[in-house]
Amino acid sequence: MSSRVVITGMGIAAPNGVGLDNFESAIKNGKSGIQFFQELKDLNFGCQIGGKPDLSETDLNNYFTELQLRGLNSSGIVYGVISGLDAWKDAGLEPSVSDEPDWDSGIIFGTGISGVDKFREAIHLIDEGKTRRLGSTSVIQTMASGISAYLGGILGCGNQVTTNSSACTTGTEAILMGFERIANGKARRMLVGSCGDHGPYIWGGFDAMRILPVNYNNDPTTASRPMSATSSGFVPGSGAGALVIESLESALERGADIYAEILGGEINNGGQRGGGSMTAANNEAVQRCITGAIKNSGIDAAEIDLINGHLTATSKDAIEIKNWKEALGTGPKDFPFINSLKSMTGHCLSAAGSIETVATVLQLKNDFIFGNINCEDLSEEITGLIDSNRIPQITRAQKINIAAKASFGFGDVNAVMILKKYSE
Questions:
Q1: Can you give the pTM of this predicted structure?
Q2: Burial class (CB in 10 A: 0-12, 13-18, 19+), 325
Q3: Where are the beta strands (DSSP E) in 166-259?
Q4: By residue range, what is the domain housing residue 52?
Q5: Could you report the per-residue pLDDT of 81-105, keeping only the tens digit for each?
Q6: 155 and 299 share one domain
Q7: CATH of the domain at 213
């Protein structure tokens, strides 16, 4: 790999802010996007709260034609298109307007479960013998690659256009897949990111697993509590994050503004062995992923200033920090600063990695660390590992040179990426 890869555009549709300015203001001010849903209460959910982006009809009309909106019933695709087009525009790029595709540009945009509401609608129509009423968009809304297909057609990208899916690592994995394609000279730029639907048909399985908090239905903004002694499960969320990444050569040629540089990363799997399972991580695999990302990025562990962790507000938070501590070989006082966006957005599942990467890049670019809300009662298990001042509870001005973004997910999947403040 010889090409340096930089980030030149970003877009976001998060529960606590749509658009970069709104989102940055929200994370700086500790604004939560978690809310109560009457629909979940009516369906007898234990956890009746969640996070979803706040979009108006005007917002939708700014991104979709009337024809595109007709029958569109996939929130993940909506969030993905909005964040993706915003990232493309933010990078100073325009959709291809000729019959010639943009052969240098591609898309890797991940998702988890796509178009569940459309599936439900289709099942009823088919069972009633009304197949012809499904509409012409039912296939592209329910196929996993629907989001990348939508974006690819709007932008006219002629390089690889695909969708990945790897549970909660999906977003981080998509970015690293795009990074490798550019670094290997197979593309000049890639639109990368991920999205996730909201609603009972997405969140119901987690409620059935009893891993969501049930005691905060009347106080939703305090429910997501990563690293807290009173955390009781993750709050489900949804949305999308998108980044335009490209070779440094390409960015400099077009005079693009550069947010940050991607140094490298690592993706692996614990094989559901050695303590790992479908829902729990193999700790050795996590540590190997961390050390592999550091090695692949050509840095020393001591150079990491900030970790944006996976940290979902479960009993696994302390284990995650222990894995970082052992992989980095640090003591309690020289551990990097660490934070979790999930305190404000909930766990956005397949969209989490990309949304959280946007938050990490904003911190790198603008020299701040956002605070971890709802962890005023830090877990003693965690404070026994690292000093509490490494877990800021309010936003602080802080120059950051290197940050790590981590995502871990069901299936024993791991992804760690290393980002650096851009310098010539």
A1: 0.95
A2: middle
A3: 189-196, 239-247
A4: 5-260
A5: 999 999 999 999 999 888 999 999 9
A6: no
A7: 3.40.47.10
